[in-house]
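Annex B.
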Amino acid sequence: MASVYQINKGVSKPIVFKGLKAQYIAYLALGLVFLLVLFAALYISGLSLFVVLPLVLGLGSALFFTVFHLSHRFGEHGLGKFLAKRGLPRFIRFNSRRIFISLKGGGHERG
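DUF4133 domain-containing protein: predicted structure tokens.
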């Protein structure tokens, strides 16, 4: 008796939703949750709706444009690579060769 197996062809592909790739979906979701909490806090604190609504809408549109721009510019892993490369020093400066001399002998200094 022959068995029928379904093959999932999208196993190694990144998650894409409306043009957003991978982790940018989570960034957008977290930003929207933050905006919702900000709206509720400002409205409950007594600020006028005419002040709160344009502020939240402006921040929301800035969030959308920024997240979509980052998604298209860097792709799936590009933002992490960009931030990691920015964190590397351009050069290493040292005043003594003692650490390198001790490495040559297997960690034991020669007397």
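The mean pLDDT is 84. The two ends are 77 Å apart (CA to CA). Further annotation is deferred to the next reporting cycle.
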